């Protein structure tokens, strides 16, 4: 079998590769065995100082630990692999062989490696016996009182026994306990405000401090003025103020150039270096501050003018095709002549996309709304400007309007279709004219109904017109139906109720044919001037006219053939009431109570009133009560009489001889105060006709004795005692 040359060479190479791999593995195993068999026989520090001395916050000492390895010819550095510890870490701190002095004292440093330890005693000392704050020549006290504006330069001096003092100012760490009061940088103290702070300087573990009490060298600052109030007007030239600082010794120092000036309201006044500039109307407080002292001054800025007037003042409604519109701005003050400030005022448009403005000239630019504002010396005025698109047609929301005499007429909204096909509200763009200014005319910018009648309003929008018919009426006060209840026979038509309108003038008018009718149920078919009942039910019929409404209760039912009333005559005292019962008989024979459904009339109406089925007597007299229902009627006679309070006789006792006669009178007293002689109409009786008799008030003695004569009238009676003597 044949083989190619390449395959033959590969087969010959494999034995050598196997030998090489075996050699590598053998060497690696030997190396691992060698590391695993490393034997440490001891450890020691390499070049450890003796004695080992550290200074607090000074340089560190770096220790190196070497291990002796059995069989090795050289020491092995095991610093990084050792465990380090300090017997007192508050004195000496150790980390990875690096020693740091913390405080005065002695501590032992221990390094451990594989069971072997090395130790070193370390002493920590202060580099200086003390550090002291000085002012350059004299040591500082523990506290001091200083004034704002003072220049404070402190030094820190380190002192050690047997050595010359050393200035360590630049190397020390400086701090202020209250940086709002003072700051410190390399001994230079900057005083900021009154208060207390402690300045601390620290170097090499030693420190010194001074407590500073900072106060102002001045008692106050005054701003000299003739008055406590600075009064300015918008547009005035700036005013320069002075500021004087009053020292605690009574001295005065001008400080306007050095003071810090502040305005409480920069929209009213600004202040810089004592120069006050009026900005806008209002009040503000100016404060001058210097070295912890301050003074204030109240400022009022008044408008140079009372008001700004724009002409025209109404909101503008323009189209993209309209020419620019010019506004005039006038500044007004009291009765003085108005000042034209059109060209000197500042003009602004809130949306230059919609319209621009320059010197009062407004130019429409795009569809939308903007606010054009004019400002002059702290006063301003503005108008709203709306720009509309080009329209192709216009339409009014109403074709007719009912208006009332002397009232303002609200015109209907007007919409239009733009060239883009969108519907746009152009109500405010429309201009209106009246066909009859006697009936309807514009007064003080508002359309007013001036006379009863009809006028046509024509509205124009970009040459497109709409018309509205306006009818001017008297103002209605009340809408009243002649009957509050109505009956409609099923399947039959009946006239719609008569509706009367009462105007505020007191005039009345039958508007039955003008009202708008509405039924609460489809059971009542409305077809003016009639209504037709379709199915038995109760229906509310509503009549509406000129904003006023009234209702009639309609009953759809069978035909009534007969009506009966429980009484045909009523007698009442004034202010007394009585209810009646009315019964109706349907064609089917069924009866129904109709008292509350009857339509009653009273003739005359001054005698009584009616509510439902109850009559109330109003005044003395007689009247005829007529109730109708389904065209049938009943009548009741009514007599209103006053209420009898008591009867009185002309004598209480009489003494007569036999056959003697005496005439007495009896009177009736009513609650109205009326008194009537009822002698002839009263009923007279004798208690004993054998002693005396009586006829129409005439008493006749018969025989000796005593009896009582009585007069009776309408439930009341009066007595007369009669004695007959021989």
TrEMBL record:
4Fe-4S as UniProt keyword: no
Record keyword Signal present: yes
SUPFAM superfamilies according to UniProt: Invasin/intimin cell-adhesion fragments
BIG2 domain sequence ranges: 39-123, 133-213, 217-300, 304-386, 559-639, 643-723
InterPro entries on file: Big_2, Invasin/intimin_cell_adhesion
Keywords noted in UniProt: Signal
Alphabetical list of Gene3D superfamilies matching this protein: 2.60.40.1080
Taxonomic superkingdom: Bacteria
Extent of the signal sequence: 1-36
SMART domains registered for this protein in UniProt: BID_2 (SM00635)
Record's protein name: Bacterial surface protein
Organism of provenance: Paenibacillus albus
């Amino acid at each position: 079998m044949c083989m190619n040359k390449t395959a033959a060479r590969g087969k010959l190479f494999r034995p050598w590769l196997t030998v090489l791999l075996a050699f590598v593995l053998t060497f690696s195993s030997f190396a691992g065995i060698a590391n695993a068999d490393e034997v440490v026989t001891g450890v020691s520090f390499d070049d450890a100082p003796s004695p080992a001395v550290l200074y607090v916050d000074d340089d560190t000492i770096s220790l190196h630990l070497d291990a002796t390895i059995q069989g090795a010819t050289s020491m092995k550095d095991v610093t990084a692999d050792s465990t380090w510890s300090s017997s007192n870490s508050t004195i000496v701190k150790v980390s990875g062989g690096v020693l740091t002095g913390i405080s005065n004292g002695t501590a032992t440093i221990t390094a451990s490696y594989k069971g072997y330890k090395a130790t070193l005693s370390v002493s920590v000392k202060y580099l200086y016996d003390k550090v002291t704050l000085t002012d350059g020549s004299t040591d500082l006290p523990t506290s001091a009182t200083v004034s704002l504006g003072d220049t404070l330069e402190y030094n820190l001096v380190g002192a050690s026994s047997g050595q010359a003092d050393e200035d360590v100012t630049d190397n020390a760490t400086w701090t202020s306990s209250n940086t709002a009061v003072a700051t410190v940088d390399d001994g230079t103290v900057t005083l900021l405000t009154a208060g207390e702070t402690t300045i601390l300087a620290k170097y090499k573990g030693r420190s010194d401090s001074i407590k500073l009490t900072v106060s102002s060298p001045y008692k106050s600052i005054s701003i000299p003025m003739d008055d406590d109030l600075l009064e300015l007007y918008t547009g005035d030239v700036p005013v320069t103020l002075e500021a004087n600082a009053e020292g605690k010794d009574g001295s005065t120092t001008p400080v306007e150039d050095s003071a810090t000036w502040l305005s409480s309201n920069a929209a009213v006044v600004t202040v810089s270096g004592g120069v006050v500039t009026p900005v806008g109307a209002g009040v503000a407080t100016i404060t001058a501050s210097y070295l912890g002292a301050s003074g204030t001054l109240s400022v009022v800025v008044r408008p140079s003018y009372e008001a700004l007037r724009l002409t025209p003042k109404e909101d503008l409604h323009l189209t993209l095709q309209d020419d620019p519109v010019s506004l005039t701005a006038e500044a007004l003050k009291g009765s003085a002549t108005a000042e034209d400030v059109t060209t000197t005022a500042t003009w602004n448009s809130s949306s230059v996309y919609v319209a621009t403005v320059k010197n009062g000239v407004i130019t429409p630019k795009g569809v939308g709304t903007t606010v054009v504002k004019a400002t002059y010396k702290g006063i301003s005025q503005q108008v709203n400007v709306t720009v509309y698109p080009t329209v192709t047609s216009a339409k009014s929301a109403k074709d007719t309007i009912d208006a009332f005499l002397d009232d303002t007429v609200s015109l209907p909204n007007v919409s239009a279709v733009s060239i883009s096909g969108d519907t746009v509200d152009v109500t405010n763009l429309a201009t209106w004219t009246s066909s009859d200014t006697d009936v309807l005319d514009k007064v003080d910018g508002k359309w007013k109904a001036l006379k009863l009648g009809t006028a046509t309003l024509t509205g124009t929008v970009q040459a497109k017109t709409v018309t509205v018919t306006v009818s001017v009426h008297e103002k209605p006060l009340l809408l009243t139906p002649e009957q509050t209840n109505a009956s409609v026979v099923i399947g039959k038509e009946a006239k719609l109720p008569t509706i009367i309108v009462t105007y505020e003038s007191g005039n009345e008018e039958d508007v039955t044919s003008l009202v708008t009718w509405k039924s609460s149920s489809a059971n009542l078919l409305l077809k003016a001037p009639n209504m037709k009942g379709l199915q038995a039910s109760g229906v509310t019929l509503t009549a509406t006219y000129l904003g006023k409404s009234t209702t009639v209760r309609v009953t759809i039912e069978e035909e009534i053939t007969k009506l009966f009333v429980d009484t045909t005559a009523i007698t009442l005292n004034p202010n007394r009431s009585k209810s009646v019962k009315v019964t109706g008989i349907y064609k089917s024979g069924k009866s129904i109570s109709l008292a509350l459904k009857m339509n009653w009339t009273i003739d005359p109406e001054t005698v009584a009133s009616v509510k439902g089925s109850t009559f109330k007597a109003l005044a003395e007299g007689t009247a005829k009560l007529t109730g109708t229902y389904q065209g049938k009627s009943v009548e009741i006679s009514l007599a209103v009489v006053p209420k009898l309070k008591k009867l009185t006789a002309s004598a209480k006792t009489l003494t007569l001889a036999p056959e003697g006669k005496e005439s007495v009178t009896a009177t009736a007293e009513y609650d109205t105060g009326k008194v009537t002689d009822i002698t002839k109409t009263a009923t007279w009786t004798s208690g004993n006709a054998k002693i005396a008799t009586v006829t129409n008030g005439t008493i006749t003695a018969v025989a000796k004795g005593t009896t009582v004569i009585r007069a009776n009238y309408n439930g009341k009676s009066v007595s007369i005692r009669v004695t007959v003597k021989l």
